């Protein structure tokens, strides 16, 4: 009996209480005050924006105005202006101004209290493209159908969408020839992929389709020296030979008795090679 009484006593013992999960207590008064402050600030910001969003009184335009007229910029800006001093979309204004043919880039900013300032940088024509086009310094076609093309600019020609390729080739060639005192007046890329250039002296250099860089190296090293004192009498230099070049003389030239008539042939030359 004592055994059973002991078990009963064990059953009647209270089990230790487990840990209870309690939600954190929120200080609703402090939270509501913070939310109210944020809402008040937002409302104040809206009211200030509405109060300050007065009509734009004037647009100030700065720039060199050599190719672009100030009135063109003003008209483009007014057409894109769709709000007041605060709500005006400055990116929209900038895009509208930069869409003008001779505008390279534009900067737009607000001037307190009711003016907008637009500063433009004009495109710089670096070369002619074909008969009536112009390229900028990045080799981008900026204008076509130009009536008065500056004649002093070099002329570049090539198939459609090759403006950048031809411009890069021109810069590379002019950089090398400029060190020799030579100026490239024109560079052409035909539909077959063949390159040809004209020097300011009137000499045409034929580079062809293959190994253009290697042929240019050979021209700089050998041919440029040959034509240095005879540019007025030379019509073309043909670099399309595998290991040499040919010189074409002008028709009215009288060759000297002690000079070669046709070409300079280097060792191993196999003739013309495209």
Can you describe what's shown?
The structure is a single chain. This protein has 274 residues and is of the alpha/beta class. It has two domains: 58-122, membrane protein fhac (Ubiquitin-like (UB roll), Roll), CATH 3.10.20; 125-265, Cell division protein FtsQ/DivIB (Rossmann fold, 3-Layer(aba) Sandwich). It has helices at residues 2-12, 28-52, 70-80, 90-98, 163-178, 212-227, and strands spanning 58-62, 103-111, 115-122, 125-129, 133-136, 141-143, 155-157, 184-189, 195-199, 204-208, 234-241, 244-249, 263-265. The strands form two sheets. It has a ten-stranded mixed β-sheet, with helices on one face. The chain has a three-stranded mixed β-sheet with strand order 1-3-2, covered by helices on one side. Helix 3 (70-80) crosses helix 4. The radius of gyration is 39 Å and the shape is elongated. The model is unreliable at 1-8 (pLDDT under 50).
Overall geometric form: elongated
**Strands of the biggest beta sheet: in what spatial order?**
6-5-4-7-8-9-10-11-12-13
Q: Structural class of the secondary elements?
A: alpha/beta
CATH topology of the largest domain: Rossmann fold
Count of individual domains: 2
CATH superfamily of the largest domain: Cell division protein FtsQ/DivIB
Percent in helix: 25-40%
The largest sheet is:
10 strands, mixed
**Number of discrete helical segments:** 6
Mean pLDDT score, rounded?
84
State the total count of DSSP E strands. 13
Low-confidence stretches: 1-8
Q: How many angstroms does the end-to-end distance come to? A: 121 Å
* Cα gyration radius (Å): 39 Å
CATH class of the largest domain: Alpha Beta
């Amino acid at each position: 009996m004592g055994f059973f009484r002991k078990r009963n006593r064990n059953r009647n013992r209270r089990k230790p209480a487990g840990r209870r999960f309690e939600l954190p207590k929120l200080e609703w008064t402090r939270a509501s005050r913070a939310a109210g402050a944020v809402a008040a600030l937002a409302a104040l910001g809206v009211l200030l924006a509405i109060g300050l969003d007065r009509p734009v009184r004037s647009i100030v335009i700065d720039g060199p105005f050599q190719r672009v007229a100030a009135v063109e910029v003003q008209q483009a800006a007014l057409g894109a202006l769709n709000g007041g001093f605060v709500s005006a979309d400055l990116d929209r204004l900038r895009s509208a101004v930069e869409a003008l043919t001779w505008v390279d880039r534009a900067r737009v900013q607000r001037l307190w209290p009711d003016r907008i300032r637009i500063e433009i940088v004009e495109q710089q024509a670096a070369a002619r493209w074909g008969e009536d086009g112009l390229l900028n310094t990045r080799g981008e076609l900026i204008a076509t159908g130009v009536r008065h093309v500056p004649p002093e600019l070099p002329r570049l020609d090539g198939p459609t969408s090759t403006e950048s390729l031809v411009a890069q080739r021109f810069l590379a060639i002019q950089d090398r020839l400029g060190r020799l005192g030579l100026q490239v007046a024109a560079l052409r890329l035909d539909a077959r992929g063949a390159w040809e250039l004209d020097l300011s002296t009137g000499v045409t250099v034929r580079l062809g389709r293959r190994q253009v860089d290697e042929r240019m190296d050979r021209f700089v090293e050998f041919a440029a020296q040959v034509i240095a004192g005879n540019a007025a009498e030379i019509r073309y230099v043909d670099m399309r030979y595998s290991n040499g070049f040919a010189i074409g003389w002008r028709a009215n030239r009288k060759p000297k008795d002690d000079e070669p008539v046709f070409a300079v042939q280097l060792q191993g030359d196999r003739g013309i090679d495209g």
